[in-house]
Design a protein that fits this description.
304 residues, alpha/beta, five-stranded parallel β-sheet, 12 helices, 5 strands, 37% helix, globular
């Protein structure tokens, strides 16, 4: 009797293992991701500036790669452009000077097979656009008309919170209700700067320049903020925890016009000593804390 039970158990276990082996792999392997936006996406290296409509190898791609997932990433990010510039009407910036854009009326998604895109990450410019929700919907329609299964994510940058862009932040619940995943890396940054995130009293003390540059402007992200963007995008899309995720793969990504972290600090701060983002990257304790917080800020039921 015991042998029969053991045989039945082994058969059941074998069937379960076979079914598991035939089930589709979890994660993002084989998918195509597209980033739509501007310098709030590329400045910190989430994608690499200048890879317009071509496969991109910025931080998001490298995090996917470090997880063993082959994801094709396309970068459609153009400096100073709004989401309305990505609608079928094309670019609406008079005398547009962005080298990747063909000027007014040009389609910023030209050459991209919209039906082959599985994941679309959207980010608005640094303005409080009163037509934000309508523009988001117009851009999304371009994809859903050819691929109803495409998934959308909206990336909230810190500037929308710091400048109280209520047309943007106020529309987030409506986007979420329409199935868009909100990746509010900007709220995490603002809470860390303002010491409002739930953390131990002995945790790293963050300042504005831990995440944002201070030379020429005071709103563009640095590589640490670029990492937060990329990692939260990956976790939101894959469903995986940020805790324990590899991040050394991000340290050699080209960020805006800088070849590395030291070059970025030299070019984008009044003095390289004005920022501690390199020290934070070098601190396992600080990075572990940031990864734990990323999980918390990605919870869909988290209070806004």
């Amino acid at each position: 009797m015991k042998k029969k039970r053991l045989s039945a158990l082994l058969l059941a276990l074998g069937a379960a293992l076979c079914a598991a082996a035939q089930s589709p792999a979890s994660g993002l392997d084989g998918l195509c991701a597209l980033f739509i936006g501007n310098s709030f996406v590329y400045y910190g290296g989430c994608v690499e500036k200048g890879d317009f409509r071509r496969p991109d190898h910025g931080m998001f791609h490298r995090i996917c790669e470090a997880n063993g997932e082959r994801v094709t990433v396309y970068d459609c990010t153009y400096g100073r452009h709004h989401l309305r510039d990505f609608t079928a009407a094309g670019c609406r910036i008079p005398r547009c000077a962005d080298n990747g854009c063909g000027g007014p009326g040009s389609d910023l998604l030209r050459g991209v097979d919209l039906g082959a895109v599985d994941l679309v990450f959207l980010s608005e410019s640094g303005d409080d656009n009163p037509d934000f929700l309508a523009d988001c919907r117009a851009v999304m329609r371009r994809f859903t008309e050819v691929n109803p299964d495409v998934r959308f994510f909206y990336l909230v940058h810190p500037y929308s919170h710091l400048k109280r862009h209520t047309h943007v932040t106020g529309a987030l619940p409506a986007l979420a209700a329409e199935g868009v995943t909100i990746v509010d890396w900007g709220r995490l940054v603002c809470d860390l700067i303002g010491d409002a995130a739930a953390r131990p009293a002995t945790a790293w003390r963050y300042s504005r320049t831990s995440f944002i540059k201070n030379k020429g402007d005071t709103h563009h992200p640095n590589p640490l903020a670029g990492y937060l963007t990329a990692q939260m995008c990956y976790c939101a899309a894959s469903g995986r925890s940020a805790v324990g995720q590899p991040y050394a793969c991000c340290t050699q990504v080209r960020c805006n016009d800088a070849a590395g972290f030291d070059d970025f600090a030299a070019k984008h701060y009044e003095s390289p000593s004005d920022t501690d983002f390199r020290e934070i990257f070098a601190s396992p304790a600080a990075m572990a804390e940031l990864q734990r917080l990323m999980d918390d800020y990605l919870k869909p039921d988290r209070p806004q």
